[in-house]
Amino acid sequence: MRTHSLVAAALLSVACQRSAPPSPTRESDEALLARADSAAVRLSTTLRERLVAAIRSEGPAAAAEVCSRQAPEIVATLRRETGVTVGRSSLRLRSPADAAPSWVDGWLRAQGERPAAGVTGLRVVEGDRARVLRPIAIEGPCLLCHGEPDAIPAEVRAVLAARYPDDRATGYRVGDLRGALWAEATRSSGR
Ligand code: HEC
Fold first, then answer.
1. How far, in Å, CA of 110 to CA of 8, rounded?
2. Integer CA distances (angstroms), 153 to 142, 148, 156, in order
3. How confident is the model over 75-95, as pLDDT tens digits?
4. CA of 156 to the centre of ligand 1 (A)
5. What mean pLDDT, rounded, does the chain reach?
6. Is 15 left (phi over 0), alpha (psi -120 to 50) or beta?
7. Is 136's C-beta closer than 6 angstroms to any atom of ligand 1?
8. For residues 157 and 149, is the Cβ–Cβ distance under 8 A?
């Protein structure tokens, strides 16, 4: 259990931000970008909170199950609540549901497999659409479920093998670029 608490503490130590409510008037480009960005941050924060809570209370194998069940629900809820399309993706997918839209795929391919240091994201507005992309780096606690297969606890490997027969998201090291957190918001005048 000690290892689990350490992992949970390490995950908790990463700073979080809260999202702002959508603007009631026609949005400026900056406000549109901010809305997309805050939905992306909310996705990241919510996933992290759930992961920490699950590792703490139930251990890593149960956490992997919780994560696999809850991550798609969190994405769907956030899309519904904010009107922003959000997601996470990678060149090495665990879940096929996390397949990248083409603009994210293009960014991922342009980066390739590499350390996350020096990688910058995207913030662009085209017409009435804002796109935001933030790079995701591998941190120590992520290795529990994304590290070298030998270093992943056997009970976690069993959950992953059962749920993700085509899992490609192992073998990472701390500092590697894991993928992208992305969001796309459309300008609205009435929200
Ligand atoms: C308890 C196990 C566990 C831990 C710890 C964990 N993940 Fe995952 N990760 C999963 C599972 C299960 C999925 C597939 C379900 C989903 O979409 O979350 C996943 C999916 C992802 C995805 C979506 C892309 C894909 O391959 O489907 C990213 C990005 C990701 N993880 C990054 C991280 C990062 C970064 C950390 C550390 C901060 C981390 N994970 C820690 C289990 C874990």
1. 33
2. 12, 10, 5
3. 999 999 999 999 999 999 999
4. 12
5. 89
6. beta
7. yes
8. yes
Query: Cβ neighbours of residue 24 under 8 Å, at least 6 residues apart?
Result: 191
What gap in Å lies between CA 157 and CA 105, rounded to an integer? 27
- Any idea which of 15-29, 109-123, 166-180 has the lowest mean pLDDT? 15-29
Q: Output the CA 31–ligand 1 centroid distance in Å.
A: 29
Give the model's pLDDT for residue 188.
Answer: 78
Amino acid, single-letter form, for residue 59: G
pLDDT tens readout for residues 110-169: 999 999 999 999 999 999 999 999 999 999 999 999 999 999 999 999 999 999 999 999
Question: Can you read off the two tokens belonging to residue 113?
Answer: 């497999």
Instruction: Judge whether residue 17 has pLDDT over 70.
Output: no
Indicate left, alpha or beta for 112 from its phi (over 0: left) and psi (-120 to 50: alpha): left
Closest CA to 126 of 43, 36, 186: 186
Angle at 123 between CA 17 and CA 27, to 5 degrees: 80
Q: Give me the residue label for tokens 């060149």.
A: 91
